[in-house]
């Protein structure tokens, strides 16, 4: 009988040791399942490319203002741009404060990254003001930072356009506020001319509306330093005031005097002064005429103003024309004997 062989117990380390593998040529390829050098390089390159793509995507999103950042309130400069909104309703502000107190900041503000590590406020002035009030009142860390979309505007022009567009969407600005930001942006040197400022900032509004904003620029230029409640001026009243200013150059001086002589604690009081001055100018130009009634036709002949269209033809001369009255008028400090003689000679040669 054959002698039985004794089996040796299994070695516990056998399965834990790497197996030898052979290459396609039959030579040992080393211990374990280590990949070939070219595979390792390709793997590392793939990982690097994926990380770079992710980094580029995040940077692009950040530059486009698609990523919300938490920015300390002290790092935000709300005076970076001249604000287009002149007044903040206290009732609305109180409601916003209470909303942020209970629910937190729901809508991010929009800021511009500056070179010094700070951020210039583009839009969200009311939200920022509410956060500052809450932090000053409570010292709560929840209100120490503002959620913000960080954008990178190439020029100050782009920043102003962004502010105007955001506020046009969120709040109905008055014509006076719109005209004021046009003049302030021009004064800051953002735009080369008033026309460029108006057309760029309000490029997306209808032409008729843009024309009215341009008319209100006259009010801003002539009365901004004396008006106390300019946002209360309606479109109709504002355009009537501008028309009177263009037709009677002494009207602006009389209007400024009237405003300085009256105490105007409320918007209604200021509007009364403006309307009274406008009515006084109209009464001075239009003579008191008793309406003539045609009994057969039952119509009333109402006198019309002598001049309806006025343009600035020389630095100190305005030309007015009324088709109804067949009348042309020249007014202004430049109207003198020399102008009269020159005009007379020109008419003779026609």
TrEMBL record:
It holds the Pfam family ParB_N. It comes from the Bacteria. InterPro entries: Chromosome_partition/occlusion (IPR050336), ParB/Sulfiredoxin_sf (IPR036086), ParB_N (IPR003115), RepB_N (IPR037972). Residues 69-168 form the ParB-like N-terminal domain. CDD domains: RepB_like_N. PANTHER family: CHROMOSOME-PARTITIONING PROTEIN PARB-RELATED. This is ParB N-terminal domain-containing protein. It comes from Donghicola mangrovi.
